[in-house]
Amino acid sequence: MAVPLGGRGSAPHRPVLLRETIELLAAERGGLFVDCTVGLGGHSEAILQASRDAQVLGIDRDDEALELARKRLARFGSRFRAVHADFRNITRVLAIAEVKQVRGILADLGVSSLQLDSPSRGFSFRHDAPLDMRMDASAGVETAAELLGRLSEVEIAQIIFEYGEERRSRRIARWIVERRERGEPITTTRNLAGLVERAVGPGKQRRIHPATRTFQALRIAVNSELENLDRFVTDAVDLLEPDGRLAVISFHSLEDRIIKRTLWKLSGRCQCPPRLPRCMCDAHKAVEILTRRPISPAEEEVAGNPRARSAKLRACKKLLITPN
């Protein structure tokens, strides 16, 4: 399950929009499904329970999550397989697995409950921990602390503004760099959360912690979460069998915007500026969009799982015959 960077409280693992996702994937048909962000295996478990003929290939960047998913789904035997990989490399993953087409693909984007609730991973300001935020520590990417120690004030402000949509990004970046120049770099979650809270100010009865947007922005930057997301959607559709389904759950507007525009393009809706004399974006009708508007969690789900509040689910069905 993927969740957004939340507030102060902790929540148990609950797959977001579970019923709606399984219905849109039409998992009762059976066949091979790919869970691109298997996490703790909640969605995969529901797919496998929907039909005895269902199989799941689970992908995740997090080795710890994969191991827990393997244990949770061990009772399904060979119907579940786990692969340590970045879901954006889905074409390569399926080629290695000698799979040409699949019945359905699910991508539940963002940070998982396991990562968010881990006191040592540095994703949340609820625990004082090294400022890490890497989804895959074996990938050799910089930690959030290393990023803040290397980038310029302008670059830090740009990340916080673009990925966190934080209006006080320049002030936050300036304070971070001033601390760094005094020989006091930001190295822990408590350091960063405290600095942002002082820089942003308490505000008027904030619904979320003042540091939420900054933490989100750094996590996106560290893990390159928006990079090639549009390409992933296109690759996923290519890998679906006719009438196969793709479902994507996102947790902030930047992700959702990319998913929406890519699905529109694959449904034949031109994304070019209106003044262009002809379409240059290669829009072609390969899918039928199943969600005219994104599906959001019902009030009851949000009440039981506050982390689900910003989730948006979009889905499409691959056409039986793709027009030339």
Could you write a compact summary of the structure shown?
With 324 residues, the protein is of the alpha/beta class.
Description:
α2 (42-50) links the parallel β2 (31-35) and β3 (54-60). This protein has helices at 18-25, 42-50, 63-72, 90-96, 113-117, 144-150, 153-164, 169-181, 189-200, 212-223, 229-239, 253-266, 299-304, and strands at 2-3, 31-35, 54-60, 80-84, 102-108, 111-112, 240-250, 287-289, 312-318. With 324 residues, it is of the alpha/beta class. The strands form two sheets. The chain has a seven-stranded mixed beta sheet, sandwiched between helices. A two-stranded antiparallel ribbon has the order 1-6. Residues 1-12 have low confidence and may be disordered. The chain is globular and about 60 Å long.
The residue ranges in which pLDDT falls below 50 over 5 or more consecutive positions are: 1-12
Largest sheet: 7 strands, mixed
| Number of strand elements | 9
Name of the level-1 CATH class of the largest domain: Alpha Beta
Order of helices and strands: EHEHEHEHEEHHHHHHHEHEHE
Strand order of the largest sheet: 4-3-2-5-7-9-8
Percent of residues in β-strands: 15-25%
Task: Tag the structure with descriptive keywords.
324 residues, Rossmann fold, two-stranded antiparallel sheet, 39% helix, globular, disordered N terminus
